[in-house]
Amino acid sequence: MEKLSKTLLSAVCIMTICSGLATAQQRAAVPGYYKDIFMDGGIKLTSRTTLPVTDWLNLSLEYLATQRESSTFSPIYQDTIHQNKIILGSPEDLNGALLYPDGAPRFRMIYINGGKAGEHGNSLTERGRQIYRDFLKGGGSVVGTCAGAYISSKGSISDGKPNLKPTYIAMWPGWVHSTGLEKSYTGMFVPKDSPLLKYASFKGNHIDSVRHNGGCYMYEQELPEGTEILTYFDYEPLTANGTRSIHRKVATWAWKENDQTGRIVLCGSHPEGIESGERLLMMSGMLQYAIAGNGQTRLKGELKKGEEREMLKSTADNDPDYTMIGDRQYHHFKFTLPKGAKNITVTLTGDISYDLFLYLNKGDFAFRGKAPYADISKGGEKVLKFDTLEAGEWYVAVECNSTVETIITKWGVEYVGDTTVLNGVPYYIEVNWE
What is the DSSP letter of 58? Predict the structure, then answer.
């Protein structure tokens, strides 16, 4: 790759330079992510195209759907083509829609619909299942209901014995158990320490009439450390031909492996289609708790005085700390400024056809609206200049404000416009002083 032009902008930014470029859609975006939620309604899952809770919470949504509204229909060839393009990737988007070029989560959260868990997992292939694991491990969160809970586990309990499911994704390292209850409704007990109560209150700590159709409950005998209980089933009649009780079995639960990973929230029932009332509040709490569990912001590395850092690598290089930046993504760096430093410059050199923004903050990660020094003018070349700055640790951020345009198709969103940003925008970053 030929070295990018080193011609710097002559403008000096001491406080924020605002170009007024942000559209209404971009202003709604959460810093560091392309959008809030990706909804998986792919092969053998219910292919809903709306999720009422996203309007309730004012969250942005993209989705994958097949041409079959019900999970009982067989996929057609075009379903596989579009699912593979969106999840597995294509030449114009090597990571697929879920991940950035460096493997970081592109959405804050994935929601997995109900349907046929094993068959959907099989359609994803092992590569697709690994993309979901990478999404959670990289800091993105996941919510799954019914089949979404099944497929997120490592398998189910059958005849009292664990049954490992190779086509399940195993993002939560625990087991589930079939309820044996179909086309019905149950109540939900909300324990006093449930994380749901951070986001809503429920009369009598109880939720009435949550739809249930062949879902699961959490198997408690081998519980992964850190698993949290959000609700229990309230259903006294026997299920599974009158032989099984699910009363006070765990209906909704959550798990977060560590500070770097996202949080997964799973439910054996179907609160997702409700537009009002306590069931909507339940789903709202599930999403909010999941998103609140996004992984911590990560550093790409430390900038050294006078050493230009090249962010030129692609997905295939498997070197995320030096990989190009994706649409609406942030890359974070830091440097240590000694006492008495003068004529300090932070220089960003990138392709002028993309809008790369530059931020500087003392002692903490730099984001738009938080960093006291920023340049968000058009183009990919920026420089921040200072006669002096306070000694200590400074954080630098690069934001790629350029993104794709979208159109709605039968299978969901298709990216159009300048899609080259999907495979990453190269740039150089350097800090210097006397």
Answer: T
Report how many helices (DSSP H) and strands (DSSP E) the chain contains, helices first.
Answer: 6, 25
Q: Which value, in Å, is the radius of gyration of the alpha carbons in the chain?
A: 24
Return the pLDDT at 162.
92
Whether 328 and 401 have beta carbons less than 8 Å apart is answered as yes
List the beta strands (DSSP E) in 99-242: 107-112, 141-145, 155-158, 161-164, 175-178, 184-189, 206-212, 216-218, 228-234
Of 271, 336, 293, nearest to 136 by C-alpha is: 293
Residue 13 has pLDDT above 60, yes or no: no
Interatomic CA distance for residues 380 and 368, integer angstroms: 16
Four-residue CA torsion sign, 375, 378, 380, 383: negative
Residue 254 near residue 291 (C-beta atoms within 8 A): no
Nearby residues of 77 by Cβ (< 8 Å), 6 or more positions away = none
Report CA torsion sign: 263, 268, 274, 280.
negative
Q: Average pLDDT for residues 126-137, to the nearest whole number?
A: 98
Tell me the pLDDT band of 8, cut-offs 50, 70 and 90: very low
Q: How many CA atoms lie within 13 A of 113 on its CB side?
A: 25
| Buried b / exposed e along 231-255 (16+ C-beta atoms within 10 A) | bbbbbeeebeeeeebbeebbbbbbb
Mean pLDDT value across the chain: 92
CB contact burial 381-413 (16+ within 10 A = b; e otherwise): bbbbebeebeeeebbbbbbbbbbbeeeeeebbb
